[in-house]
Design brief:
The protein is α/β, with parallel strands linked by helices. It has one domain. Helix 1 runs antiparallel to helix 4 and helix 4 runs antiparallel to helix 5. The longest helix has 33 residues. The chain is elongated, with a radius of gyration of 27 Å. Keywords: Coiled coil, Signal. Pfam families: DUF4349 (PF14257). InterPro entries: DUF4349. This is DUF4349 domain-containing protein.
Length: 244
Protein backbone atom coordinates (compact mmCIF):
# COMPACT_ATOMS: atom_id res chain seq x y z
CA UNK A 1 0.00 0.00 0.00
CA UNK A 2 2.84 2.36 0.87
CA UNK A 3 4.51 1.68 -2.49
CA UNK A 4 1.28 2.49 -4.33
CA UNK A 5 1.03 5.83 -2.55
CA UNK A 6 4.61 6.67 -3.45
CA UNK A 7 3.92 5.74 -7.08
CA UNK A 8 0.93 8.06 -7.28
CA UNK A 9 2.90 10.87 -5.64
CA UNK A 10 5.85 10.49 -8.04
CA UNK A 11 3.61 10.51 -11.12
CA UNK A 12 1.67 13.57 -9.92
CA UNK A 13 4.81 15.53 -9.05
CA UNK A 14 6.50 14.90 -12.40
CA UNK A 15 3.26 15.50 -14.30
CA UNK A 16 2.68 18.86 -12.61
CA UNK A 17 6.27 19.92 -13.24
CA UNK A 18 6.03 19.00 -16.91
CA UNK A 19 2.70 20.81 -17.35
CA UNK A 20 3.94 23.99 -15.68
CA UNK A 21 7.15 24.14 -17.68
CA UNK A 22 5.38 23.41 -20.96
CA UNK A 23 2.96 26.30 -20.42
CA UNK A 24 5.86 28.64 -19.77
CA UNK A 25 7.55 27.63 -23.00
CA UNK A 26 4.67 28.77 -25.24
CA UNK A 27 4.47 32.13 -26.97
CA UNK A 28 2.27 33.52 -29.74
CA UNK A 29 3.85 33.57 -33.22
CA UNK A 30 5.06 36.85 -34.61
CA UNK A 31 4.22 38.20 -38.04
CA UNK A 32 6.16 36.92 -41.05
CA UNK A 33 8.97 39.02 -42.50
CA UNK A 34 10.49 39.22 -45.98
CA UNK A 35 14.18 38.36 -45.71
CA UNK A 36 15.14 38.64 -49.36
CA UNK A 37 13.08 41.45 -50.85
CA UNK A 38 12.26 41.78 -54.50
CA UNK A 39 10.81 38.76 -56.30
CA UNK A 40 12.46 36.28 -53.95
CA UNK A 41 10.58 35.99 -50.70
CA UNK A 42 11.45 34.25 -47.50
CA UNK A 43 8.98 34.24 -44.66
CA UNK A 44 9.89 33.80 -41.04
CA UNK A 45 7.37 32.43 -38.60
CA UNK A 46 8.54 33.21 -35.10
CA UNK A 47 7.33 31.04 -32.25
CA UNK A 48 10.02 31.49 -29.64
CA UNK A 49 9.54 31.04 -25.92
CA UNK A 50 11.41 34.20 -25.04
CA UNK A 51 13.36 36.98 -26.74
CA UNK A 52 15.28 40.07 -25.77
CA UNK A 53 14.38 43.64 -26.72
CA UNK A 54 17.20 43.59 -29.25
CA UNK A 55 15.77 40.63 -31.15
CA UNK A 56 18.43 38.18 -30.07
CA UNK A 57 18.94 35.09 -32.21
CA UNK A 58 18.92 32.92 -29.08
CA UNK A 59 15.93 31.78 -27.11
CA UNK A 60 15.90 30.84 -23.48
CA UNK A 61 14.03 28.18 -21.62
CA UNK A 62 11.77 28.98 -18.66
CA UNK A 63 13.61 30.75 -15.88
CA UNK A 64 13.19 27.74 -13.66
CA UNK A 65 15.46 25.81 -16.04
CA UNK A 66 18.12 28.50 -16.30
CA UNK A 67 19.53 26.95 -19.48
CA UNK A 68 19.69 28.79 -22.83
CA UNK A 69 18.52 27.13 -26.05
CA UNK A 70 19.75 28.07 -29.49
CA UNK A 71 17.09 29.13 -31.96
CA UNK A 72 15.77 26.18 -33.94
CA UNK A 73 14.74 26.97 -37.53
CA UNK A 74 13.16 24.75 -40.18
CA UNK A 75 13.87 25.91 -43.75
CA UNK A 76 11.86 24.79 -46.80
CA UNK A 77 11.83 26.28 -50.27
CA UNK A 78 10.66 25.95 -53.84
CA UNK A 79 12.18 27.27 -57.06
CA UNK A 80 10.55 27.28 -60.50
CA UNK A 81 12.90 27.42 -63.48
CA UNK A 82 12.05 27.85 -67.16
CA UNK A 83 14.25 26.15 -69.75
CA UNK A 84 14.03 23.95 -72.83
CA UNK A 85 12.26 20.68 -72.07
CA UNK A 86 15.13 18.74 -73.66
CA UNK A 87 17.41 19.96 -70.85
CA UNK A 88 15.22 18.86 -67.91
CA UNK A 89 17.10 15.61 -67.38
CA UNK A 90 20.49 17.28 -67.57
CA UNK A 91 19.60 19.97 -65.04
CA UNK A 92 17.97 17.52 -62.64
CA UNK A 93 21.16 15.45 -62.71
CA UNK A 94 23.25 18.59 -62.15
CA UNK A 95 21.13 19.61 -59.14
CA UNK A 96 21.51 16.14 -57.64
CA UNK A 97 25.28 16.36 -57.94
CA UNK A 98 25.22 19.86 -56.41
CA UNK A 99 23.22 18.66 -53.41
CA UNK A 100 25.50 15.69 -52.80
CA UNK A 101 28.59 17.90 -53.06
CA UNK A 102 27.10 20.09 -50.30
CA UNK A 103 26.65 17.12 -48.00
CA UNK A 104 23.00 16.57 -48.88
CA UNK A 105 20.93 13.98 -50.68
CA UNK A 106 17.99 13.48 -53.04
CA UNK A 107 14.64 13.13 -51.25
CA UNK A 108 12.57 12.52 -54.39
CA UNK A 109 12.50 13.27 -58.12
CA UNK A 110 10.29 13.12 -61.18
CA UNK A 111 10.69 13.99 -64.85
CA UNK A 112 10.01 17.68 -64.10
CA UNK A 113 11.13 18.25 -60.52
CA UNK A 114 13.61 17.22 -57.87
CA UNK A 115 13.45 17.59 -54.08
CA UNK A 116 16.79 17.95 -52.35
CA UNK A 117 17.91 18.16 -48.73
CA UNK A 118 21.15 19.79 -47.66
CA UNK A 119 22.63 20.95 -44.34
CA UNK A 120 20.67 24.06 -43.37
CA UNK A 121 23.75 26.27 -43.58
CA UNK A 122 24.32 25.29 -47.24
CA UNK A 123 20.85 26.21 -48.56
CA UNK A 124 22.07 29.45 -50.14
CA UNK A 125 24.65 27.53 -52.18
CA UNK A 126 21.98 25.13 -53.42
CA UNK A 127 19.77 28.08 -54.38
CA UNK A 128 22.66 29.54 -56.36
CA UNK A 129 23.00 26.27 -58.27
CA UNK A 130 19.26 26.27 -59.03
CA UNK A 131 19.48 29.82 -60.36
CA UNK A 132 22.07 28.66 -62.89
CA UNK A 133 19.66 26.13 -64.44
CA UNK A 134 17.66 28.70 -66.39
CA UNK A 135 15.32 31.63 -65.87
CA UNK A 136 13.93 31.58 -62.34
CA UNK A 137 10.27 32.62 -62.49
CA UNK A 138 9.44 32.01 -58.85
CA UNK A 139 11.38 31.41 -55.64
CA UNK A 140 9.93 30.99 -52.18
CA UNK A 141 11.84 30.25 -48.98
CA UNK A 142 9.90 29.55 -45.80
CA UNK A 143 11.65 29.68 -42.44
CA UNK A 144 9.76 28.51 -39.37
CA UNK A 145 11.00 29.01 -35.84
CA UNK A 146 10.33 25.79 -33.88
CA UNK A 147 12.31 26.71 -30.76
CA UNK A 148 9.21 26.54 -28.56
CA UNK A 149 8.36 23.07 -29.85
CA UNK A 150 11.92 21.93 -29.28
CA UNK A 151 12.03 23.25 -25.71
CA UNK A 152 8.64 21.73 -24.88
CA UNK A 153 9.74 18.31 -26.16
CA UNK A 154 13.06 18.57 -24.33
CA UNK A 155 11.35 19.34 -21.01
CA UNK A 156 8.84 16.52 -21.39
CA UNK A 157 11.56 14.03 -22.33
CA UNK A 158 13.74 15.04 -19.37
CA UNK A 159 10.82 14.71 -16.96
CA UNK A 160 9.84 11.30 -18.32
CA UNK A 161 13.41 10.09 -18.08
CA UNK A 162 13.49 11.08 -14.41
CA UNK A 163 10.13 9.43 -13.83
CA UNK A 164 11.26 6.22 -15.51
CA UNK A 165 14.40 6.11 -13.38
CA UNK A 166 12.34 6.58 -10.21
CA UNK A 167 9.90 3.87 -11.25
CA UNK A 168 12.77 1.47 -11.90
CA UNK A 169 13.96 2.13 -8.38
CA UNK A 170 10.46 1.43 -7.03
CA UNK A 171 10.35 -1.88 -8.89
CA UNK A 172 13.52 -2.95 -7.14
CA UNK A 173 12.10 -1.79 -3.79
CA UNK A 174 8.77 -3.59 -4.21
CA UNK A 175 7.95 -5.99 -1.39
CA UNK A 176 5.05 -7.89 -2.98
CA UNK A 177 4.28 -9.24 -6.44
CA UNK A 178 1.19 -7.02 -6.70
CA UNK A 179 3.17 -3.88 -5.94
CA UNK A 180 5.87 -4.78 -8.42
CA UNK A 181 3.32 -5.53 -11.16
CA UNK A 182 1.56 -2.22 -10.50
CA UNK A 183 4.78 -0.24 -10.82
CA UNK A 184 5.91 -2.20 -13.88
CA UNK A 185 2.61 -1.38 -15.61
CA UNK A 186 3.19 2.32 -15.04
CA UNK A 187 6.82 1.93 -16.09
CA UNK A 188 5.75 0.36 -19.39
CA UNK A 189 3.35 3.25 -20.07
CA UNK A 190 6.01 5.86 -19.30
CA UNK A 191 8.54 4.06 -21.51
CA UNK A 192 6.11 4.01 -24.45
CA UNK A 193 5.38 7.72 -24.09
CA UNK A 194 9.08 8.51 -23.76
CA UNK A 195 9.93 6.56 -26.92
CA UNK A 196 7.22 8.44 -28.86
CA UNK A 197 8.56 11.81 -27.74
CA UNK A 198 12.14 10.81 -28.52
CA UNK A 199 10.97 9.84 -32.01
CA UNK A 200 9.34 13.25 -32.45
CA UNK A 201 12.56 14.90 -31.26
CA UNK A 202 14.63 12.99 -33.82
CA UNK A 203 12.29 14.10 -36.61
CA UNK A 204 12.38 17.72 -35.43
CA UNK A 205 16.17 17.74 -35.15
CA UNK A 206 16.44 16.32 -38.67
CA UNK A 207 14.14 19.02 -40.02
CA UNK A 208 16.27 21.67 -38.34
CA UNK A 209 19.58 20.17 -39.46
CA UNK A 210 18.61 19.78 -43.13
CA UNK A 211 16.88 22.34 -45.34
CA UNK A 212 14.55 21.10 -48.09
CA UNK A 213 14.43 22.61 -51.58
CA UNK A 214 12.16 21.51 -54.43
CA UNK A 215 13.11 22.66 -57.92
CA UNK A 216 10.39 22.63 -60.58
CA UNK A 217 11.24 22.78 -64.30
CA UNK A 218 8.89 24.35 -66.86
CA UNK A 219 9.18 24.43 -70.64
CA UNK A 220 10.08 27.88 -71.97
CA UNK A 221 8.60 27.37 -75.45
CA UNK A 222 7.22 30.62 -76.87
CA UNK A 223 4.39 30.68 -79.46
CA UNK A 224 5.32 31.31 -83.10
CA UNK A 225 3.74 34.01 -85.32
CA UNK A 226 0.48 32.07 -85.81
CA UNK A 227 0.44 31.11 -82.15
CA UNK A 228 0.55 34.76 -81.15
CA UNK A 229 -2.55 35.42 -83.30
CA UNK A 230 -4.54 32.74 -81.47
CA UNK A 231 -3.19 33.94 -78.13
CA UNK A 232 -4.35 37.48 -78.94
CA UNK A 233 -7.81 36.22 -79.89
CA UNK A 234 -8.03 34.22 -76.67
CA UNK A 235 -7.01 37.26 -74.60
CA UNK A 236 -9.67 39.39 -76.32
CA UNK A 237 -12.43 36.84 -75.67
CA UNK A 238 -11.35 36.51 -72.06
CA UNK A 239 -11.42 40.30 -71.65
CA UNK A 240 -14.94 40.49 -73.10
CA UNK A 241 -16.55 37.65 -71.18
CA UNK A 242 -14.45 36.90 -68.12
CA UNK A 243 -14.20 39.33 -65.22
CA UNK A 244 -11.63 38.74 -62.48
Amino acid sequence: MRLSSILVLVVLMVGCASSGQSEMSGAPPAAGVNLYGGGHTETMEVDTIASSDRGSTRSTSPKSQGQPYEQKLVKNGTVTVELDEDNFGREIARMKVAAESLGGYVASESSQSVTLRVPAGRLEELLAAANQAGEVTEQNIRVQDVTANYVDLKIRIDNLQRLRKRLQELVEAGSTVQEILEVEKELARVTRELEQLEGQMRVLENQVSYATLTVYFQNDISPGPIGWVFYGAYSAVKWLFVWD
